[in-house]
Structure formats: structure tokens, C-alpha cells
Design goal:
Shape: globular
Bound molecules: zinc ion
Distance between the termini: 15 Å
Radius of gyration: 20 Å
Number of helices: 10
Largest sheet: 7 strands, mixed
Strand content: 15-25%
Number of strands: 15
Length: about 350
């Protein structure tokens, strides 16, 4: 039936530019669906995985995990999905279904998470992906495909902790980084009722940060500003991947305040204030099925809209360079221009 060859843009080895790779279509399992990719966002995690930063990458590697597309083939039990449905797919494409976390419904903590990645065997910088149908989420009509694509990873990544820690009293929240994740976090946080301070290294992002819904803006290298914000925040959401001077940042947290990491930063700091202020630093990774569905419904109702730049998928290497040089404002979404082969 499927005799044609599929194509994806693959890194053949660590850190290599992507080049076309042709392969026979992966077979569908009973609950799987094949989804023809129409749009795929470029996430920082894709770049790190090309460089094998997480030490889980197998080559040739086709990245891509912020996907919107159309179901093109279904297995025997596709959980209600059918050919022609428009769906979104994020970083996770399947789960083991057997471990303690899967049994609790916390599928994003599945013990088999590395094999559960959507990019196994081939990710979304390609003609199509194969995932378990439970991880292909029907998209609300109100969401455009480019918006939905970005929500599938960047959106869920920031929505889950923001929703978990939102209180009845407006909490003072600092969002570190106004980039792909951060500009969405500002929008979600504003809609969830937080008092939002955007914290960035770029003064030129202030106007847009306020436009996204930030109540205040703080420069990360503004020492006086940071000192003034001592014991100010209930919660910090750190969306950046790099290192920074953490002590002055942690000093802006109230006693028993919490910092949630979603951007894989490197950390090294003196623990004096962490202990004496009884601070918490936690991570948050994707979201479970309920969180995914709630996030999409909430985003559609609240008109959460990532600012995206559309580029043809054939220009993926230029896009990667742009993201590496921090020139994306704020997310680049690849539009599939791979011809039928
Ligand atoms: Zn991602
Ligand atoms: Zn599991």
C-alpha cells in the first residue's frame, strides 16, 4: 500500500547540518496514526539534540516536535481519530502504559520517556510522523496550525507549571527570558491572573513584553532593580537554557518562594539563601493528556497567540542558525514544502 519513500531533514552525525534523508515509511502499530506534517516549530531542544546535549540522540536524527498536521493513515484502534483530522503533536509521541507513572495518568513522567519521543524514529522536520493516537490531539478550530504547532511544546511547557501554581490571590510572578517559551508564558500567566514581571537581558524587548501582558519589566543585569525586587516574587519561571548569576535572582524570591525550571539551564550557586529562605527549585516537563487538552482549550478561549515567523522547511538550516544566534522573534515555524515523492 505505502510503497513510496518518505523524506526528512536529518543530522547524520553530532552537530552536522541537516540534509535530506529518504526512508521507507515506518509501520503503524495498533493504536498509531500517521500524520502528514503541515507545520513544525523549531524549539531549542531540537538544536540541543542535534548536538547530543542530552546524550540520547541516535543518528541519523530527524528533529522536530512542535507539529500540526493532518491524519493520513490510522492503525486498527486509533482512539477515535480518522483520516483527515487536524491534530497537534508535541515532544511525547507514546508512553509505555505499564510503569507506575503511566498508571497514574502522569504519562509525561513515563519511565520509558526517551523512546517515547515523537522524533523516534523520525521527527517533524519531515513528510510525516508516526505516533500513538493518544498523543495526537485534535485541534480547536480557533487555533491556526502555526499557533497550534508552537503550543504543542512551548505552550504546554509553560502552561503546566503556571496552572499548577496559580492561586486565588494574584501571585507575583517573574518570568526569566522573553523568548520562544517566555513570550508565551507571559500571555498564559496574564490570562491566569498572575501579576507578571518579564525579566530579560534585552532592553529592546520591553515594549513587546508589555504587549504580551507583562505588568512590569526588569533587566537581568540591572543590579539596582534586582536589589529593589528583593523578597518580591512568590514564583519565578525560568525559561532560559543558559547559565547566569543565580544568587541575585534567587534573592528576589520571597521566603519559601519557588523557582520552576523549564529551559534546561546550567546552575551553580552558593546555597546559603536557598536554605535560610527555605526556597524550592523544581523542574517541570511537558504535561499529561488532560493538561494538553486543557491548554489547547484555554489558549483558544483566551486567544493566546505565539508570535511566529513562517519559513519553508527546505530552509531549515538557515532557521537553525537564526535560532542559535537568538534572532528568532519569537518562534520560527517551518511550513512543509517537501514535494510528494
Ligand atoms: Zn520543544
Ligand atoms: Zn510509562
Amino acid at each position: 500500500m505505502f510503497t513510496k519513500t518518505f523524506m526528512g531533514y536529518a543530522a547524520k552525525a553530532k552537530g552536522q547540518p541537516l540534509e535530506p534523508l529518504f526512508y521507507p515509511p515506518p509501520r503503524l502499530g495498533e493504536q498509531d496514526v500517521r500524520v502528514a506534517v503541515t507545520h513544525c516549530g523549531v524549539c531549542h531542544t531540537d538544536l540541543s539534540a542535534i548536538d547530543d546535549y542530552y546524550r540520547i540522540t541516535e543518528y541519523p536524527f530527524v528533529p522536530g516536535h512542535e507539529i500540526a498536521g493532518i491524519v493520513s493513515e490510522v492503525g486498527k484502534n486509533p482512539n477515535g481519530l480518522k483520516e483527515g483530522d487536524r491534530v497537534g503533536i508535541g515532544w511525547q509521541g507514546r508512553s509505555c502504559g505499564k510503569c507506575e507513572w503511566c498508571k497514574l495518568g502522569e504519562v509525561n513522567l513515563c519511565l520509558d520517556i526517551i523512546d517515547g519521543a515523537t522524533w523516534v524514529p523520525y521527527g517533524g522536520f519531515s513528510s510525516s510522523v508516526v505516533v500513538n493516537s493518544r498523543f495526537a490531539y485534535p485541534l480547536p478550530h480557533a487555533l491556526s496550525s502555526e499557533t497550534a504547532a508552537v503550543l504543542m511544546c512551548a505552550g504546554i511547557t509553560v502552561f503546566t507549571p503556571l496552572q499548577a501554581y496559580a492561586g486565588t490571590i494574584p501571585q507575583k510572578l517573574g518570568i526569566i527570558g522573553v523568548g520562544g517559551l517566555g513570550h508565551l508564558a507571559i500571555q498564559f500567566a496574564h490570562a491566569l491572573g498572575y501579576e507578571v514581571t518579564a525579566i530579560s537581558t534585552s532592553a529592546d524587548k520591553k515594549t513587546e513584553a508589555v504587549g504580551f501582558g507583562a505588568d512590569q519589566f526588569l533587566l537581568l543585569d540591572d543590579q539596582a532593580g534586582l536589589e529593589e525586587a528583593e523578597f518580591y516574587f512568590d514564583l519565578l519561571l525560568c525559561t532560559v537554557p543558559g547559565d547566569m548569576e543565580w544568587e541575585p535572582v534567587l534573592d528576589t524570591l520571597k521566603k519559601r518562594g519557588r523557582m520552576v525550571l523549564v529551559g534546561f539551564p546550567r546552575m551553580s550557586f552558593k546555597t546559603r539563601d536557598l536554605l535560610s529562605h527555605e526556597l524550592s527549585i523544581t523542574g517541570s516537563f511537558l504535561g499529561n493528556h488532560d493538561a494538553m487538552r486543557e491548554m489547547l482549550t484555554f489558549a483558544a478561549a483566551q486567544k493566546i497567540t505565539p508570535k511566529v515567523e513562517l519559513m519553508p522547511m527546505s530552509q531549515v538550516n538557515e532557521v537553525i542558525q537564526k535560532v542559535k544566534e537568538n534572532r528568532a522573534r519569537y518562534r520560527v515555524v517551518l511550513v512543509n514544502d517537501i514535494p510528494e515523492i
